[in-house]
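During the reporting period the student researcher (J.K.) took over the structure-prediction task from the postdoctoral fellow and processed the backlog of single-chain submissions. One of the processed entries is reproduced below for the supervisory committee.
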Amino acid sequence: MTAFSPIAGLDARTPRIGLLRFDRPKRVMLLLVATGFMSLADLVMTLTYATSVGMMEVNPIARAVMAGGSPWMLSLWKFATAGLGLGILFALRRVRKAEAASWMVCAVMTALTLHWMSFNHAVAHCADEYAALADGTDNPHWVVMARR
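J.K. obtained the following structure tokens:
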């Protein structure tokens, strides 16, 4: 008779945290949930700035969508693109490359979230400069959307 082992049956490829078993599908799902929340936060911040004083948008596709001036269209576009990407990764959650892609996407969204946090902190200290930039910029990357 063998001794009881709480980790019996786990192979070396399955990372363990305590006695919990996090296999690839669970890891990918956790990464996708985190990415989804960060994508939602990005949408909220984008709409907050774009419908108030304006913002610089360097993504040409997002800038084109925002040029239409509709927060609903921007929201639909962001939900569609994020949903499609997250849906594909969810469907492939058992594949090693999908896990790698999920880690990369989560890392990019984490970097974007940190950028928003830094930006919010900087804007609070540079309100006059930001307002001057918003008032008379001819920069094609500057976007202001009407609230609807």
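The committee noted the following: The radius of gyration is 21 Å.
J.K. will present the remaining backlog at the next meeting.
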